[in-house]
Amino acid sequence: MDTIGHFIDGARIAGTSGRKADVYDPATGQVTKTVALAGADELQRAVDAAKAAQPGWAATNPQRRARVFMKYVQLLNDNMQELAELLSSEHGKTVEDSKGDIQRGLEVAEFVIGIPHLMKSEFTEGAGPGIDMYSIRQPVGIGAGITPFNFPAMIPMWMFAPAVACGNAFILKPSERDPSVPMRLAELMMEAGLPKGVLQVVNGDRQAVDGLLQHPDIGAVSFVGSTPIAAHVYAEAARHGKRAQTFGGAKNHMIIMPDADLDQAADALIGAGYGSAGERCMAISVAVPVGEETANALIEKLTPRIEALKIGPASDSEADFGPVVTREAKEKILGLIEKGVSEGAKLVVDGRGFSMQGYEDGFFVGACLFDHVTRDMDIYTQEIFGPVLSVVRARDYDEALSLPTEHEYGNGVAIYTRDGDAARDFAARVPVGMIGINVPIPTPMAYHSFGGWKRSVFGDLNQHGPDSIKFWTRTKTVTSRWPSGIKDGAEFSMPVMR
Ligand code: NAD
Q: Where is the signal peptide (predicted)?
């Protein structure tokens, strides 16, 4: 069986800690590979290689650094199918969906091709008599990224593309559930011309994360994953004097106003609720129809659409979504569905008994729809991260607005309406980081920044876009005054002693 090691100093190396984890094909439920879990020695090797490589890379002019990303984008496109199939084989999402995962990361690589422009800074001429002042952006040094299972291509690229383009060395600790694509992404960066040691992948679990957080040579840490771990990583990084941006879980609402196009809203909910088996941080997991009439009509439109969803392994090109990532994830989701039933929500579409013929051991969960969910229920307060949509009925707009306002998470939210005034008021008032107006998953493009509010994020700078350049660089401000020189006092005759 294949054992995935680490990618250090430009080459794949075997793990030496003796610890490893199983990697599954979620469609079959079978272990297909193992992955090495790094200990302190492997982490130190990665840091040593990063320290050796970073100064030379930072001194490489930004246009040349950009050219590596130009080539990289081309390589990602050339290898798209192979990468997508590899991604699906460990994550479980459909191959088309995996291509989207890669594409959204690729777009961050495209964004940082502008790094010569993005790193330009400020200049004040004549800040005082004969004094100029300018600020420059310099790389932090060595950055680290810790990523979740659900976007094993996009999220590593959110982090390493800007970090590396800014002149940092970077150590990626991907999810141990689907580590193969991150390894390939690092290999392709080498193929694109990145010097060895600049980008490395250290596979592992909590031990590797703690090692990164405590290491004195790592200056900045970016994390995406669940909220309790995000809070832990943020606190530990700060305790060790590092800058940190850590992104956590979500419970994204979609408000459906009585004037909305209900067919459009229902279609949007199907894609945003069940795509990728609900395992997206921007998935819509709560639908909030406003008014009883809207709610009844929405349930009527959703039910047949959900019942018609096709579930299958990633290899089935007809499938709408695949299995969830692990047996534990499946059990957690089924446990929460049971809880919802016992708490009194109405399970309108029941996917609990779903079994995939020929894939009986796979981690499949059928699509579920709950109606009459209330704000005190666990299925409302907790992130389910599965193919489960909850409908919370609101009497009016203000009640609808209060739901995402009061929820502890604030990643994304959407409103469906034809009324510009309602949409504008909603966008202005709701305390959530990413807002969709008649757009179900308002994930910003690479040249804007991505991030939530409240307990969906700790730290103040977002992923990609302009924020990422700030996060991965430090500002240095120079104040300069030159004594009067050659223009005033120069002598052009033969100097003689006076
Ligand atoms: P997770 O928190 O279990 O793991 C994320 C990373 O942390 C992994 O690399 C893992 O190895 C590491 N880790 C796990 N336990 C740890 C511990 N005790 N100490 C230190 N490190 C630890 O998350 P997941 O299950 O891989 O991903 C799903 C979660 O990520 C969901 O909550 C989802 O909402 C969230 N997510 C958020 C965003 C966002 O942008 N806000 C994006 C994608 C996913």
A: none
